Amino acid sequence: MPDRKPYPSDLSDEQWALIEPVITAWKQRHPSASGHSGRYEMREIINALCYQNRTGCQWRYLPHDLPPHSAVYYYFAAWRDDGTDQTIHDLLRCQVREQAGRAEDPTAANMDTQTVHAAAGVPAAATGLDAGKKSRGRKRGIASDALGLVLAVAVTAASTHDNAIGIDLLDRVAIDNPSVTRAWVDAGFKNAVADHGTALGIEVQTVHRAPDARGFAPIPKRWMAEQVFGTLMWHRRLVRDYERSPATSESRVYWAMTANMTRRLTRTATPTWRPSTTVPAA
User: NCBIfam families from the xrefs (predicted)?
Assistant: First the structure.
């Protein structure tokens, strides 16, 4: 580690050890034109990504004791475009499932969508109005397993119907997680999603809210999807969509879940943003 004070979002030695083999292999496949290994430590690049995801700061507002934003963005974009971010995420998910006594490959998925406001710099062509929620921005579709681990992410304009997002998620799940044979959805996903799932060998079941339920009531099978969205909200970069490209928004979700899973695997508590309070002596 460099000679600087650590940030709460920094990777510990144990957490970095979970990611380092993939990053090292990537660096070996992508040597620089001059043959050197690069000016910045890869661990510090990851630390900068975790810092930005957790605090929500702009690229140019990254602290000066982290690598410059141009270098951090270079690696972020390269890993987004070649799928390295998802590779790291998926490998960690397998380890978390094994740690929990589950098989590496999930057999069921929860699918849900979340509408978030878009920042002023997001292109209007990539946003829309969610007519049901009367909210303008982007819609984030998530497929997760029974442990609240992400299997697939799809980000679109908020005007996109849940059917289109559900079909997209099913396609991604079928490609990356062919072991999945069942998916639970809410009533926002219509027959087109179920029919598409049948064609892929995935049985799609709609789970309805109990008719006599009053106020907040967790929905069987479906409550885990809401927990996933709540977990993502700990990362302030995801509270609002700041990204020009939907692919960048999807990558943000993978990095947020990667940070969560490294803490889960090393049994490290997630630092809270709330200040500690000291009860004065009587």
Answer: transpos_IS5_3
